[in-house]
């Protein structure tokens, strides 16, 4: 399973706590993250994470490219709904391309926990074998 982990600054502590709580599940996946999020999680957990650019510098688009290439199973994206982001078009584009390709996305802690537990049970299996 290929899993992307992304969080805006006000949600960084939440995604770190999520990764700590579920590291035994997450360590079985191939993990990808935007730059700062990946650094925070790897420092806190020791999980191995492929880090892309920071979000405002293109990291959301790099993860979107994996989605478009049929290379991503699950996107955990803890968005900050209360703070304007300079790269809002990139954020919208990532969520849009997940919808285009039917990739499971969680944008808050409740849905993130539900999808991580579902993944552990083998229920996040939507990626076409060929496309
Ligand atoms: O801005 C982001 C997502 O839109 C996240 O980027 P960082 O993980 O580099 O902070």
Description:
With 131 residues, the chain is of the alpha/beta class. The chain has one domain (2-120): Rossmann fold (3-Layer(aba) Sandwich), CATH 3.40.50. 46% of the residues lie in helices and 16% in strands. It has six helices and five strands. Strand 4 (74-78), helix 5 and strand 5 (104-106) form a beta-alpha-beta unit. Helix 1 (12-21) packs across helix 3. The longest helix is centred in the C-terminal third of the chain and has 13 residues, at 88-100. Bound molecules: 1,3-dihydroxyacetonephosphate (13P).
Bound molecules: 1,3-dihydroxyacetonephosphate
Q: Which structural class should the secondary elements be placed in?
A: alpha/beta
CATH class: Alpha Beta
The CATH superfamily title? Methylglyoxal synthase-like domain
Tally the structural domains: 1
Distance between the termini: 17 Å
Net shape:
globular
Beta-strand segment tally: 5
Strand sequence of the main sheet, in spatial order?
Answer: 3-2-1-4-5
Mean pLDDT metric: 97
Q: What is the H/E string?
A: EHHEHEHEHEH
Poorly predicted segments:
none
Range of helix content? 40-55%
Which percent range describes the beta-strand content? 15-25%
Gross CATH architecture: 3-Layer(aba) Sandwich
CATH topology: Rossmann fold
How many helices does DSSP assign? 6
**Main beta sheet: strand number and arrangement?**
5 strands, parallel
